[in-house]
Amino acid sequence: MKSVRWMPSTVILWVVALLYVIPVAWFFLSSFKPGSELFSLPLRLFPENWTVSGYETAWNRFDFARYFRNTAIVAVVTTILTVIVSAMTGYAFAKYKAWWLKVFFICILATTMLPTEVIMPSSFVVVRDLGLYNTLAGIIVPSIITATGIFMFRQYFSTVPDELMEAARIDGVGEFRLFWSIMLPLARPIAVVLAIFSFQWRWNDYIWPLIILTDPKQYTLQVALRSIVGADNVDWSVLLSASIISLVPMVILFAVFQRQIVSADINSGLKD
Amino acid sequence: MSAPSSSTSPTTAAAATAPGTSGSPRKPRRNRAMTIAPAVFIAVAVVLFLLFFVWPGALAVIYSFTNYRGVGNSLTFIGLENYQKLFTDETFYSSLSRTFLYALLSVPAHYVVSLAIAVLLASSLAKGKTSARIIFFLPWLISPIVAGVIWRWLFGENFGLVNYLLRQLGGEGIHWETDATAALILIVIVGTWGSTAFNMLLFIAAIRNVPRSYLEAAQLDGANSWQRFRRITLPLLAPTSFMVILLTTIGSMKEFAMIQALNGGGPGTQNMFIVQYIYRTGFERANIGYASAASMVLMVILVIIALIQMRFDRKRDLA
């Protein structure tokens, strides 16, 4: 009797998991079919003639190298700035007391309720008036502050005992050096988790680059992909492989940081 | 628009000069250091907050009373005209109510599915949890645009695998592209699929924090696993549940990218949600004034939703 107790939950778990993986598997396998096979009935799960011609066409027709570079610049630079700014702000919230810190904390909390999508027409005007229209900086700068990152650091730093700070202060360590050489290294695990999440947000960002970038030379991957989807006659053989190509960096990121991602304790975090 | 920007400049100056003074500890001036240090730490965030939240927020209020078209600085105040027009705009109403309907359908779906998967993954009974976990994380890697493309490929009305299988089984293909209801259901499915990983992470962390002793005590008292879940785990998950529901509601209200790739809000404009409506009026029709009025309405709705949910949360804490 006891030996079959694992059966029901295991079966349910794997049926659901199968439902989650089928769309991706079907898409991935289709990308290796030649154009003639994509719509020919009966549909087959596996390609009859495996080919990478779709990948070749997609790679040659679209300037992927450029889109990858643009997206990588945006994702990496924003991530670095996000981690630094979130660490500083979260630290101030956790370890100092002042009425204006409380006020600003509420302001940051409010940004989670009012995402920028809501006020995008005027956000666009602001970015344009700052001279950042159609530049990568126009995507990077507005995305730096995220409530999630700030809350993650705030929660972490509030678990660090105050005695540690007092001891350092008595030894004559200044406030800034205390942060940079003692507290920030302590928070490295949080920095790694936030960096992974921030990279993912920015790599997959769509609406903001769509509004800010008009020159195809500045396009990020997502906007470039959308230009294929938006065409009147979708060229599926190109779209399938182009989409798969765009996933490669995220898959690598996941493979490398799988442990951190899957066990990330983002209890204090909010979605961005 | 100059007022908010000028008020930010002193902060900018402070942010630029202050880090230079770091490293020099001034013990006699401890108290001043304790004020200056946090001010410096938050300075960048304050500047960015003022630039990209307060300034656009204020501009949106101003623009909503003008007929600004996005070029030049010529503003003509037209009073409440935008709002009056908005309240008689059929497209606005239909996109707003479609967004509400979507939120109403997707919030329970997201909640139940991600909680159920989290429970399964945290249970000691199920096998193969590590590999299953990776599968559930797959959608997290995939951008909303690619997610839309993937599901469009699977649910294509004439070429998709799903309709093909339905026809093979003797049924008829469902009109995923031309029937508004089927298209909306598909959006709910894709949205749930895409956000499971994140919500699941929140739930798993919270389930782990449920004290084992409570569950064991209940088991000794003869409570079955459903009773243990219903009476112990679920109440203890309340704070996480609250957060997931709040975030999902806000997320649903601003759903945009995935739908763009999935069906573009189609058929026609029948599944056009509010953010797409704002994007269309503001950018494709360059009617920033009018779009800002729609933004203000959405903003008020979001604030009301957040306040209601917070009030609800507080009430439950007291009980």
Question: How would you portray this structure in words?
Answer:
The complex is a heterodimer of chains A (272) and B (319). Chain A has 272 residues and is mostly helical. Chain A has 14 helices and no strands. Residues 268-272 of chain A have low confidence and may be disordered. Chain B has 319 residues and is mostly helical. Chain B folds into 2 domains: 2-63; 85-318, Orthogonal Bundle (MetI-like fold), CATH 1.10.3720.10. Chain B has helices spanning 2-17, 30-63, 81-86, 90-122, 129-141, 144-154, 161-168, 180-208, 212-220, 225-236, 238-253, 257-262, 274-284, 288-318. The two termini of chain B are 46 Å apart. The chains are: A mainly alpha (272), B mainly alpha (319). At the A-B interface, helix 1, helix 4, helix 5, helix 6 and helix 10 of A face helix 2, helix 4, helix 5, helix 6 and helix 7 of B.
Portion in strands of chain B: under 5%
Instruction: Give me the CATH architecture of the largest domain in chain B, please.
Output: Orthogonal Bundle
Low-confidence region ranges of chain A: 268-272
Number of helices of chain A: 14
Give the H and E element order of chain B: HHHHHHHHHHHHHH
* Assembly form of the protein: heterodimer
* Biggest chain contact: A-B, 100 and 102 residues
How far do the termini of chain B sit from each other? 46 Å
Percent helix of chain A = 55-70%
CATH homologous superfamily of the largest domain in chain A, by name?
MetI-like
Q: Using the coordinates shown, work out and report the CATH topology of the largest domain in chain B.
A: MetI-like fold
Rg over CA atoms of chain B: 25 Å
> DSSP helix count of chain B?
14
Q: Estimate the helix proportion of chain B, in percent.
A: over 70%
Q: Could you list the spans of chain B in which at least 5 consecutive residues all have pLDDT below 50?
A: 1-27
Instruction: Tally the beta strands of chain A.
Output: 0
CATH superfamily of the largest domain in chain B: MetI-like
Largest sheet of chain B: none
Distance between the termini of chain A: 46 Å
